[in-house]
Structures are given as structure tokens and as C-alpha cells.
Request: fold
Amino acid sequence: MSETQTTETKVHGSFAVAASDSSKDEQLMVKLAYYLPPTVARAPSIYDLELINGSRDQDIVEVAMHDVRGKENQFKIDTHGFQYIKVDSKMHKDDFDYDERIEESYFPEVEGWLKQLYPMAAKIHHLGHIVRGAVLQTDFSKPAPAWNKPNRGIAPAPRVHIDFTREGGFLVLAQAFGQEESDAVRARGKRVLCFSVWRPLSVVKRDPLGVVDCNSVHEADLYKLQRIFPDGAKGENVVVKANGQTLPESRPCHHKWHYMSEQTPQDVLVIKTSDTGDCDWETIPGGRVGCSPHASFALPGTEREHIRESVEVRCIIEL
Reply:
């Protein structure tokens, strides 16, 4: 992070999301790092991954996190913005040490899982993968790499965010396959959806991934974050405010958070990050968000557990 940047963090008390109607709902109170807009707007920077992972412009909010274990079938991708699916994979944990095995063997598996959700898919573009297996990151003095470059040994992302906007999806498509291909997808005019397919490589004991029911999110809660990668390529992510303004003490956060306790490699989480046919928040004030903000979070008492290991593949589908 450059010396001219300042860090601003605001810590609130307990802002619990309304509990589920079910008396059997398992929930715990956790602290999440939301976006706190700076008093002076910042220009896009190659260091802006800190707004996804770091402490700059941070708003610490305590929310209720609900365990979906045993109720995971109640959540559907086009209704809630995320969906858990049971899978069988031929990939072993050690296979994820090799990028070529991921691309040659795991990508086809991911494509098959997505086609179960969207059997009408005309084309699936695999944008890249990230393998995570480190403690939470604290050093942001170096520029962030292009996200779709093969990477491993990086930490969970603790800031509430969405991987990219509708426009950001096309920008990343251009990074992965060239501008001509990205322009061709636009020109075809089909419904285009972006996803993150997230899977543990071992049972998750710490730093699980939480996701938000998109129906509890308002477009005013979302802030488009312009990105510049070290190679000059442009991107566009979304960081999330606890509500549509800087959160005063009298106004709670109403986002409905969920996670799966002890998520296994057979429990794949598919997260929708944009959808030209179902997410109109970018073009219509108050429009349906349709995609799910997400973040990793600390489970109290699990600091000595094995580091969370996971793989995510990001894809674009044309319907």
C-alpha cells in the first residue's frame, strides 16, 4: 500500500440480522468486514485488492450467521443467489497442486455441475482458478496479480464482496480469451451469467465462507470498485456496505447470512456474481440484485485448527 493512502476503520456494536422463523435454526454471531466509503474518493489503484482483503476503508459489523447444514436444499441459485450441490469428483487433494490437472480434469467436472443447474447452457467459458491455503493476509504492500492467473497458497478473502460486476465479467473474459471473444459474447446478445464455483479440499474447520441471500440486499448497498491490474488490464469488482449509507447506530444491517458447518469436498457452493437476465441493480435504481455477496469469517475457538484449503473456479455461461 502506498504511503499516501490512509486507513479508516469503524467498529460497530451488535447488528444482528433478523433470526430465521425456524426455532431450530442454528446461528452464531460473527464479525464481518464491510466497506466504509472514504471521505475523499480514491482513484483506481493496483493496490485495491486491499478493499477485498485488507483493513482500508473498513466497517466492522456483527451479524447473525445461519448454518444451512441439513437445510441446504432450500437455497436455489436463481432465487437466493447461491446453491449448495453434492458432487463426486475424481480429483484428489494433491491433484490441485498442478494447474494442468485442474484445467484438463477439474474444469470438465465443474462444467458438468453447472449444466445440471442450467441444462440449457449454450457455452461455458472457464475464466481461471484460485487455490487457497494460507492464513489471512496482512501484507498489501505489493500489487495484486491478475485474479485469473493460476495461484495457490493465498488466504481466504474476509471482506464482503462480489467477484465482479456485469461489465467486470466481460473485462475478465477479455483477459482470459482476448477482446475479440469478449466482444463476440456481447454481440450474440444471449443471457450471460457469471459464477464462482467454490469447493473445499478438506473439511472446513476454520475461516468458512459465508454467503448472503440476495433478496436481503439492496442495490444501494453495493459499490462498484474499478480495478487496474499490474499489466494494465482493467477490472470491476463490487464491495458491499452494511446498508445504503454509512451505518448509524440506529440502523441495523438486514443482510441474511448463511454458511455450511464443516463443509466437505463433496459440498460444492455455487455463487452467482452477475446475470444479464436476472440482476438489474446496475441499470435500475432499486433493481433486483440477484447475486450473492460473500466473505470468509473467523469461527471463535478455531484458531489452532488446520488452515482452510479450497479451490474456486470462475465461469461465464451463455444461455
About this structure: Helices lie at 50-53, 77-80, 99-117, 166-177, 179-188. Residues 1-23, 144-150 have pLDDT under 50 and may be disordered. Residues 9-318 form a domain with the Jelly Rolls fold (CATH 2.60.120).
